[in-house]
Amino acid sequence: MDLGLKDRVYVVTGATRGLGNAAARELIADGAKVVVTGRDEKRVADAAAELGPNAVGVAVGNADPEAAERLIAAAREHFGGFHGVLVSVGGPAPGFVSDNTDEQWRDAFESVFLGAVRFARTAGAELEPGGVIGFVLSGSVYEPIPGLTISNGLRPGLAGFAKSVADELGPRGVRVVGLLPGRIDTDRVRELDSLSADPEATRAASESRIPLRRYGAPEEFGRVAAFLLSPAASYLTGIMVPVDGGMRHGF
Predict the structure, then answer these.
(1) How far is CA 132 from the centre of its chain?
(2) pLDDT for 134-151, tens place per residue?
(3) Comparing C-alpha atoms, which of 242, 238, 213 is closest to residue 161?
(4) Which of 5, 34, 39, 171 could bridge 30 with an S-S bond, Cβ 3.0-4.6 Å?
């Protein structure tokens, strides 16, 4: 299936590894050009080099108030256009309500929530009809995940924000979509599993609750992201798509 991605230009944040990197890889594989970001300059440069000539890296964090403007400008400068953004960011610090500090909450709000708001606001003003804004959220949008209290607090609010933006930008032909990853086999998920006394048992227990009985591969998530960002999904907006192997049982 031709997704219509050839020569379209996207910004993908948090793309040095994990879900953002998987999405950038699949976009490029289908012909798109991508600006990838992360906070560490060397990791960003290495990620862009690995992705090839249709990628360029910019070292900036989502919490930087100027990040959105810088990245959209980089897309236009390097590739001559801007067709969409996928806002991905490393997960907040794990912990229960008694564990997490005010500083951890503030840092997460700046990067996970306010950074995404700024990207949507800036991209929404720049995108032409056919443009798209995507958010990488979490299954916690529908059901809290034990031990991820900060994420549980922020992700559902961001999903509500995304729905509001979809309504506002829809009349201009700009789409807004959300992705809700479950247990995808990334460094982040492995790190969370490693916090238990028996990581292998924790993984086995998690897999037993997934209808497909396994963690997802990053490229499986990346392919869904590439489709949702593509012109092939031109009549999809305001939706939250679980990529979780069937963990979400509601409609």
Answers:
(1) 13
(2) 999 999 899 898 899 999
(3) 238
(4) 5
Q: Which two tokens stand for residue 22?
A: 């998987």
Between CA 165 and CA 175 the distance in angstroms is: 9
Q: CB–CB of 140/151 below 8 Å?
A: yes
**DSSP structural state of residue 233:** G
Here the tokens at position 149 are 């209290």
Q: Report the b/e string of 213-240 with b at 16+ CB within 10 A.
A: eebbebebbbbbbbbbbbebbeeebbeb
Residue 212 makes CB contacts below 8 A (sequence gap 6+) with 245, 246
Which band of pLDDT confidence, cut at 50, 70 and 90, is reported for residue 12?
very high
Chain centre distance of CA 40:
18
**Residue 250: burial class (beta carbons within 10 Å; 0-12, 13-18, 19+):** exposed
d(CA 84, CA 57): 16
Where helices occur in the chain by DSSP H, the ranges are 18-29, 41-51, 67-79, 102-108, 115-126, 149-169, 187-194, 199-208, 218-229
38 touches 26 (CB < 8 A): no
pLDDT of residue 244: 96
CA 226 from centroid of its chain's CA atoms: 11
Residue 2 is encoded by which pair of tokens? 């031709």
Give the C-alpha separation, 76 to 35, whole Å.
Answer: 10
CB 151 within 8 A of CB 188: no
Residue 193 CB: number of other CB atoms within 10 A? 19
Mean pLDDT of 199-203: 92
First to last CA, the chain: 27
